[in-house]
Amino acid sequence: MALLETSKHSQGSVLGSVNPDLASERQTASFCVEKLTALLDGGAEQTRIRRAVGDVAFLLHRVFMRSISVLGSDKQVAKWIPLATQHRLIGSYAQTELGHGTYLQGLETTAVFDTATQEFILNTPKISAMKWWPGDMGRSATHTVVFAQLYIHGKCYGIHPFIVQIRSLQDHSLCPGITAGDIGPKMNFEHTDNGYLLLKNVRVPRENMLSKFCEVRPDGTYVRQGSQKINYFTMTAVRISLISDEVLTALMKACTIATRYSVVRRQSKLKPGEQEAKILDYQTQQEKLLPQLAAAYAFHFTNDYLQELFNRGYREIQKKNFDMLPELHALSSGFKAVITQHCTAGVEICLRACGGHGYSLLSGLPSLYTKILASCIYEGENTILLLQTARFLIKCFMAASAGQPVPPSVTYLAAVKHGKCPAKNKVDFLSPDIYTEAYQHVAIRLTSSTAAKLQDLIQSGVKKYDAWNQCTVQLVQAAKAHCHYIAVKNFAETVEKLETKAGIQKIMKHLCDLFALHGIFSNSGAFLHDGYTSAAQMDMVTASYLDLLAVIRKDAVPLVDAFDFTDQSLNSALGSYDGQVYQRLYEWAQKSPTNQMSPAYERYLKPLLHNTLSKL
Amino acid sequence: MALLETSKHSQGSVLGSVNPDLASERQTASFCVEKLTALLDGGAEQTRIRRAVGDVAFLLHRVFMRSISVLGSDKQVAKWIPLATQHRLIGSYAQTELGHGTYLQGLETTAVFDTATQEFILNTPKISAMKWWPGDMGRSATHTVVFAQLYIHGKCYGIHPFIVQIRSLQDHSLCPGITAGDIGPKMNFEHTDNGYLLLKNVRVPRENMLSKFCEVRPDGTYVRQGSQKINYFTMTAVRISLISDEVLTALMKACTIATRYSVVRRQSKLKPGEQEAKILDYQTQQEKLLPQLAAAYAFHFTNDYLQELFNRGYREIQKKNFDMLPELHALSSGFKAVITQHCTAGVEICLRACGGHGYSLLSGLPSLYTKILASCIYEGENTILLLQTARFLIKCFMAASAGQPVPPSVTYLAAVKHGKCPAKNKVDFLSPDIYTEAYQHVAIRLTSSTAAKLQDLIQSGVKKYDAWNQCTVQLVQAAKAHCHYIAVKNFAETVEKLETKAGIQKIMKHLCDLFALHGIFSNSGAFLHDGYTSAAQMDMVTASYLDLLAVIRKDAVPLVDAFDFTDQSLNSALGSYDGQVYQRLYEWAQKSPTNQMSPAYERYLKPLLHNTLSKL
């Protein structure tokens, strides 16, 4: 047997030439990868542009700009947006406090209007009121949008946004009255800047309160135009954009890394006498990865749907029509929660599916995980968001039951049916009508039964807020079921529209089926509960679901190739396009700083081994 | 309103005095915390000893010693164990390779016996055969147990363990023929030493093959005594000890941190007009944390059960009786997988339940998570372990069906019943008989239906290995159901034995009920599937489950206090005994190195703000 020559393997001679185990996966693609990439980008021209442009930093700077664009008057937009665009200032967004998160009304920072000087005086009245977490604020930002309780002549008017300068534009020193710094290390591996901010008698001119929808006149008169809920609109925008910018990208990268690795890694013999099998040929590995791949596509199309809805809502708001706000808030909240939760779990599954090597930072997976995990928390904690969606659902369910009109996404709640699933064999479960209907049934059942429990409790004398609290676990289930239904329905409708792209339509149909059946398989209780789906039908679901894994497995590599990530952006020894996994791991490991001779030997190990520890 | 005086708050005057919100939780404990701590430790004397002794480092050194104790001859034990005990050497355990994990037969490292010199010659024949991951090996260990394919006169005898010296005891330099180093950064935050090892014609004397159960005689004759499976016994020991040493401790710490924080953190108003509510008073927060607390107790008792079984098995093996090995292997594999998976998910839930502050490293939760996540992968990847348990289950099911005797933990498989759950109201679901029976029913159903599918496939002409692969998703479910059943049954039996400790028995009974009902509630499909549990009964389960949350919530703080962690070992700004959360967060954050003036301003921000970037 040949001995390993270290030197030969350190020269990186094989890097770049595609591992044959990976190359063979690409030869059998059932569709054109480049065309699928173009579909995901929204056209070949968009693909070209995306490939030409690099990443843009300062996400929070964009949030700062967005909040001014949405909440600022025309005059404020004209003043601040050009400064921000030209990076003459660095913006951030200071909403969360040390003791206060999603519950905006609980924020404690104050802004008192001083008619004498025509200024607002901002203060942090106690430690729990310190701004805490705002991105880019601890070390970088020069300006920030501070959310504070507005007081005029001693009366509180609730939360309003104020532009506050916190650092000098000349030398970056903190402005008078400002204490700010970094909140310390977090779970992500990069040292992201998240800041804290204390305000002590900080004065800003009257013009710095963002005043598209409410204004303080020089004499202290308070004027509101439109809904008070408009303050939430910035967050709606942020939630939707974070889905595509941060969350989906992370899941797609994780799928790419884990899938490519799974056709290179061989473990155990599937058939006696053959060589060890690619781990993607094991049903259990397929069952880990392929549903994540399907979810990545499903939520990509959900995001398209949300984006379109948001654009429509935005146009209406420009016309001072706020009717779409509740639906938009409910959908963006619910999907922010459902998608971040699903994708975080998905990235973790991908990481674990790569075994020990997934746990190595060199795989690129741990940093994807720690980054995406944060998305479950920031811009609204998921449970609270789901309860906001649920509140909307219950309200609409009541309205629909009373024959009143409700927004388009919830009209289905009016149609309580007591039928049974009509599927007769496992192939029937590949019909979008069958499974979409099943999802709809579950969403209606969970909403209506929870509404009934709520009513019963209230009628039995339980106080409204207590009754609500006692239903929250089930309300969360209802909100998730609603979002899951919309996602399945939207995926099915998207597939239908691909009729001119036969090859792509076929594989997208498989993914849509897998997404839907995986949801039923892994949440079977919800579908079995009232007998809508029978035990025999659930066995059909299982059979169809497992069959699909074997079908999609064949296109797994082309399906992740279509996400079109460069090796540089994946930054993974396991996931590179050429599949030279072991070589790359070894080369990258050798470069690790931990391979310098450490002082630990002289200090600890040597005395231990020489039994001289006691003499120290 | 009072202004925040930074200086006052930085002096830490309040640290150490217990936050009244936390103190009030301790005044109403329904049981004696100190007595419960003693129960967990196995007696008050054990508690005293535990409190007096610090942590011991070099886990892998212990594994090295354990493998020699179990696999070494008396002579080898007499030679190596004293050296290791006195730290005259530092041991590690080199099994996993770059390209090979759990599948031991696939390891590629070779050990060729040379009769001329009475030595084994060890080699790493190719890059995928490099030892990769062994703990303490990259920078610390002087010796290691290498698992390699044994060749004598050209014939392969399979995997055997060899003691190999890798570094000089004098100056710690690598021995001739050894290339070793660190595999690079991993997901944990501490820089644990995980190493790689390349062997090139490394010679060790014949006496260095661990030979309690098989030996190579001077002439090359190979002699085996006892089962070949004995090599797996070290791993069985390691798996069981890791459950208590690493996994349960992490979950218990996470529960302590999240629970204490949840009675200090207030968010939103539960009742109009009152102050903001403690977040633990929200049903959704209880539903996140309390099932994790119940699981920590449940698995603590499972661990006692496994430990006792292991001790019995070990005594038998000393007498060269290997009969208990298969059951021990199946239970330790299955529970290693189920407990690490459950506890990892639990720690993540605790982390997320603390919102943004949980994501801060200052909470202590991220490092608990990244550490426990690794436990899902090392010492056997969980899916593979579950499939080993499943193989044992199917074998025993077949044997039991044929009337043959089977080991005690699986005798229940013989008793296929087709009854229905007899519960008539929600209180019936607080009867251990009712829920234990339900778990047993599910375990039998999943095992028997998968066995039937396997048989059907084989009878329809599918090759055995293909049929097995097509059943693996369901086999994993069966293995989990088996373990879950044993855990519930064992918890219920443990509670029953606490009759002399009334206060503790009562709260443990609540936790046992919660553990069992949470499992049914969150996996309802398995219980509804064949109608064993009806929809109406499932609603009773839900009602009882939600009721229990409110009951256990009252004792939540005393229940985590009983885990008896010092503030030092928790190392958490959120979880300290005094509950001074915000104060500690602020003080710790100020000490963060990220609060030093960074060079980033001069280098990047200043040119950007002064619009001089282009001139650079």
UniProtKB/TrEMBL annotation, chains A, B:
GO terms for biological process: fatty acid beta-oxidation using acyl-CoA oxidase; lipid homeostasis; very long-chain fatty acid metabolic process. Residues 232-394 form the Acyl-CoA oxidase C-alpha1 domain. Its cofactor is FAD. The active site is at 379 (proton acceptor). GO terms for molecular function: 3alpha,7alpha,12alpha-trihydroxy-5beta-cholestanoyl-CoA 24-hydroxylase activity; acyl-CoA oxidase activity; FAD binding; fatty acid binding. It is found in: Peroxisome. Keywords: FAD, Fatty acid metabolism, Flavoprotein, Lipid metabolism, Oxidoreductase, Peroxisome. FAD binds at residues 96, 135. GO terms for cellular component: peroxisome. InterPro entries: ACOX_C_alpha1, Acyl-CoA_Oxase/DH_mid-dom_sf, Acyl-CoA_oxidase, Acyl-CoA_oxidase_C, AcylCo_DH-like_C, AcylCoA_DH/oxidase_NM_dom_sf. Residues 432-609 form the Acyl-CoA oxidase C-terminal domain. Coiled coil: none annotated. Belongs to the acyl-CoA oxidase family. This is Acyl-coenzyme A oxidase. It comes from Taeniopygia guttata.
